[in-house]
Amino acid sequence: MTSSAVLGLPRADALYARALERLPGGNTRTTVFAEPRPPYAATGSGCRLTDVDGHVVLDLNNNYTSLIHGHAHPAIVAAAAAAIGEGSAFGLPTRYEVDMAEMLSKRVAIGEKWRFTNSGTEAVMMAIRAARAVTGRDIVVRFDGCYHGTSEPVALGSRGVSTGTLADVLVVRRGNAEEFVETLERHGDRIAAVLIDAMPHRPGLVPVATDHLQLVRRETRSRNIIMILDEVITFRLASGGLHSVYGVEPDLISLGKIIGGGLPVGAIGGPARIMNVFDPRSPEALSHGGTFSANPVSMRAGLAALSLFGSAEIERINALGDRLRDGLNQHGWPTNGRGSLLRIDLSAAPDAWWRLYGAGIFISPSGLACISTPMDAAVVDEVLAAFERVGR
Ligand SMILES: Cc1ncc(COP(=O)(O)O)c(C=O)c1O
């Protein structure tokens, strides 16, 4: 990082100096670290964020794609405030988890039953455990370089992961049909689940080929392997999630991000024949608790967010994403993705992330960016003008 690219942020410096004393590397969330220290957020409103040093930036990070309506949408603030005012969590269920399950069932064809968690990580973790419980098998197959949160079976890298877990996870090269089929042929009767994201962001946000997703469906179904589709990021792309666009039905789906309206959330959905493994009335039930699972603040914020995000809004922001992607590609910034999700290749532009931040554009350091509903065509043009100013 050249020092000229890094903004002078004296308040962030002071906070980071304190953070270094008490947090390893001054950090408690690896994904939000930026060398030599990140800006610190102060407030957000609509599609803009103000940092503690007073810089106002257009927020295309949206807390890693979770803030579908940007910051502090009045309807979501009202829903969350009402929930907190009436008691933020109880050692009892509330009507809001029922409302949320019903709302998700209307959108997701396979979503007959639901289970809520506090994060996408937990949703994926519990989906894997459900698959193991239902099939009586241990092995999980996943694809290289794809991020599914931080639970053991999906950890990227092996540090801190037990050798037993590593032995029960088979990592196949993305899009390699031959290797995938061979893996299933060799280990099929010991494989509980195949975990796939139809547009994984870490390896570049390129949609999986339709015939590959169909192959995964065919091969898992014929071997009674549970196909888990991770839609934690991609659910925003269509009312029924990205898999509805492919016309491929998985056995289980994991959700998170936008369904919490900006608060912590995750969900596992699927048909009763699988999801009933969680039914506490059964002596065989798979136990799943969570002090804050299905907490009414997340549920009510999420209900408000989803009720403002119907097909027309989804299509509108997907079209804005297409406009931004086309413009960036034309301006010499190679950009992948689909609809409102974008991945901008920053690799050829030295210090691009800091220079963009300085020009008023906040994306994730990996180049992941997204459109939120407060944005319009004028905002997209503002982003394009900033990229042009920054240059490559
Ligand atoms: C595809 C995917 N799955 C799972 C997760 C984990 O979700 P969370 O960060 O809510 O634990 C993420 C997070 O970015 C994700 O992108």
CATH architecture of the largest domain: 3-Layer(aba) Sandwich
CATH class of the largest domain: Alpha Beta
Number of strands: 14
Order of strands in the sheet with most strands: 4-10-9-8-7-5-6
Number of DSSP helical runs: 14
If you average the pLDDT, what whole number results? 97
Portion in strands: 15-25%
CATH topology of the largest domain: Aspartate Aminotransferase, domain 2
Radius of gyration (Å): 21 Å
Topology pattern, helix = H, strand = E: HEEEHHHEHEHEHEHEHEEHHHEEHEEH
Q: Bound small molecules, which ones?
A: pyridoxal-5'-phosphate
Give the structural class. alpha/beta
CATH superfamily of the largest domain: Type I PLP-dependent aspartate aminotransferase-like (Major domain)
The end-to-end span amounts to: 15 Å
Poorly predicted parts: none
Q: Which descriptor suits the 3D outline? A: globular
Estimate the helix proportion, in percent: 25-40%
Number of domains: 2
How is the main sheet built?
Answer: 7 strands, mixed
Task: Describe the model.
There is one protein chain. With 392 residues, the chain is an alpha/beta fold. The chain has 2 domains: 10-72 and 311-390, Aspartate Aminotransferase, domain 1; 74-307, 3-Layer(aba) Sandwich (Aspartate Aminotransferase, domain 2), CATH 3.40.640. Helices cover 38% and strands 15% of the residues. It has 14 helices and 14 strands. The chain has helices spanning 10-22, 62-65, 74-85, 95-107, 120-135, 163-167, 177-187, 210-222, 242-246, 272-275, 296-307, 311-330, 352-358, 377-390; strands spanning 41-45, 48-51, 56-59, 113-117, 139-143, 169-172, 191-196, 226-230, 252-255, 266-270, 335-338, 341-344, 361-362, 368-370. It is globular and about 60 Å long. The two termini are 15 Å apart. The structure holds pyridoxal-5'-phosphate (PLP). Pyridoxal-5'-phosphate binds at residues 64, 119-121, 124, 147-149, 197, 230, 232-233, 256, 266.
